[in-house]
From TrEMBL:
High-level lineage: Bacteria, Pseudomonadati, Pseudomonadota, Betaproteobacteria, Burkholderiales
Name this protein carries in UniProt: M14 family metallocarboxypeptidase
Superkingdom of this protein's organism: Bacteria
All residue ranges annotated as the Peptidase M14 domain in the record: 29-314
Source organism of the structure: Castellaniella daejeonensis
Cofactors demanded by this protein: Zn(2+)
Family statement: Belongs to the peptidase M14 family.
InterPro entries named in the record: AstE_AspA_cat, Peptidase_M14
Keywords: Hydrolase, Metal-binding, Zinc
Length: 314
């Protein structure tokens, strides 16, 4: 069965350059990265070093890429990496990271070096879209020789301290538009049939199939459950097509899929997902859930230690 109608391309035929250009022409700026993200980053200058780790040139637009780094950064101290906005449309990932930086980061001073990257994909943030201008998903592009400049720039930022990262939490959302726009667009782009799915109502986590940390994931779920509801499994015992291995937890092969959470050998890694379209939550609560998840992840990593890539707890 061919995909439902999508306004770009021919069903069953993958997009070429013309289709990508037609898709890109449909994307309109709907909010401001400069006003909503860079201003917030600048307001934190008195507490963090602001690292300009690259620039995206998507003519006529250019976007400076910014991270917040602990003011007392010290080689040899374990690092906590917090990333948001890998998918630019996932708003609470961006603002949850900024909320953590503003309200909670000081609690970890001297115990962890923090690198907080609130908006990996500013073009997508402005257009409330999952992809970059080349119709590439940055969160399937974290691999050597990445075709996505957003992904390549983040990997270059992290590379000098990757072996010190103890915990990495990557902040995401699952929205109704995943089903109404982004999954149909993906099927059209790749010339594949579109198979309708469902959107989980609530917060969940994505653990690493290749190095699972169930106690770590459970600790984050417990903390977030105090703020917002946890997504239940569907009738097949799944969330977005993956088996639920514990309440609110599924697993992906993070590195082989080119996902952001797989860019280091951190012992503790997870991807958060909130559902901002639920009638049971609000945008502010979603931001809070993301910040609480970061705190829970860092608290667990500090309490349980463990070197990057180490699975024996030493």
């Amino acid at each position: 069965m061919l995909s439902p109608f999508y306004p770009i391309g021919t069903p069953g035929i993958p997009w070429g350059d013309a289709e990508v250009a037609a898709w890109r022409a449909r994307q309109q700026r709907r909010r401001s990265y400069a006003d909503e993200v860079l201003v917030a980053v600048e307001h934190l200058r008195d507490r963090f070093d602001i690292v300009r780790y690259g620039r995206l040139d998507y003519g006529p637009d250019t976007y400076p890429l910014c991270a917040l780094r602990s003011r007392d950064w010290q080689d040899g101290r374990p690092v906590a990496l917090v990333t948001g906005g890998v998918h630019g449309y996932e708003t609470s990932g961006v603002h949850g990271a900024l909320q953590f930086a503003e309200r909670h980061a000081a609690d970890y001073a001297g115990r962890l070096d923090l690198m907080i990257v609130p908006c990996v994909s500013p073009w997508g943030y402005e257009r409330i879209h999952r992809w970059n201008p080349q119709a590439l998903d940055p969160n399937r592009s974290f691999r050597q020789g990445s075709p996505a400049p957003e992904s390549a720039a983040l990997m270059a930022l992290v590379a000098p301290f990757a072996d010190r990262v103890r915990v990495h939490i990557d902040l995401h959302e699952t929205t109704d538009t995943d089903e109404s726009e982004f999954r149909p667009a993906l099927a059209a782009r790749d010339g594949r049939p579109f198979t309708p799915g469902s959107i989980p109502d609530g917060f969940y986590l994505v653990d690493d199939t290749e190095s699972p940390q169930p106690e770590f994931q459970a600790a984050v779920i417990r903390a977030v459950a105090e703020v917002t509801h946890i997504a239940p499994a569907d009738a097949r015992g799944e969330i977005i097509g993956s088996p639920v291995v514990a309440p609110g937890v599924i697993r992906y092969a993070l590195r082989s899929l080119g996902l952001c959470a797989g860019i280091t050998d951190a012992r503790y890694r997870t991807t958060t997902e909130v559902y901002p379209d639920s009638p049971r939550t609000t945008p502010d609560r979603c931001n809070e859930a993301q910040a609480v998840a970061v705190c829970a992840a860092l608290d667990y990593a500090l309490e349980h230690g463990g070197a990057p890539g180490n699975t024996d707890g030493s």
